[in-house]
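Before relying on records like the one below, remember that each one covers exactly one chain. Contacts with other chains, cofactors or solvent are not represented anywhere in the record.
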Amino acid sequence: MIAPLLHAPLLAPPLLGSSGIPVDPTAPEARRWLQEELAKAPYEAARPTWFDRLSKAFFDWLESLTAPSGDGLGAWIPLIITVIVVAVLVTAFLIFGLPRLNRRSRLTPELFGEDDRRSADDMRRAARAAAASGDWSLACQEQFRAIARSLAERTVLVVTPGTTAHHFARRAQAAFPAESVRLEEAADLFDRVRYLDKPATEKDFRGLDTLDGDLGRISPGVLQPPAAMVSS
């Protein structure tokens, strides 16, 4: 009687339910229980993240760059070019990418009393569109905003909430003293058009557009860390 028992197939013990009674689940139930078990926090935490997968793919790619077995410099050229390109891309990102992101992140959305998150180029395009339709008042407002946002993007000035057109003009005059008169006239025009409903002319818009272009070509006279513009 012992020999037959030794050769009998081993059967997995049945699962026990919460009451201690053996449970024999069907295949769909067993699959569902397994999915529920794997969805628990310890299993989820053990799964590789997107950064883990990206890092593994990068290092696998590096390992694939084996040294060429051929003789002569020609066999090494593809590997040398690849290494140089990667080094240039990383360097360019560190030098140009991060500072640009930091500059844009410091820009405040409020500009002369309005929540305006557009870039200077976006405002210039809006000004040209208004000018094309003959709305010179709107064109002048958009163009003046473009001037202010452009200097903020260049980190020449910081336009903080509550800054008025004349506060901006006075701060800009410190950086561009040769343009003091035109900056003051531009602030007067902005206030006159926006708050007094005085109509602007094509000549007014052309003057602001020229000022914007001239400021873009001139380096600030005083190079210093940007300071918040406050009312005086």
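The radius of gyration is 34 Å.
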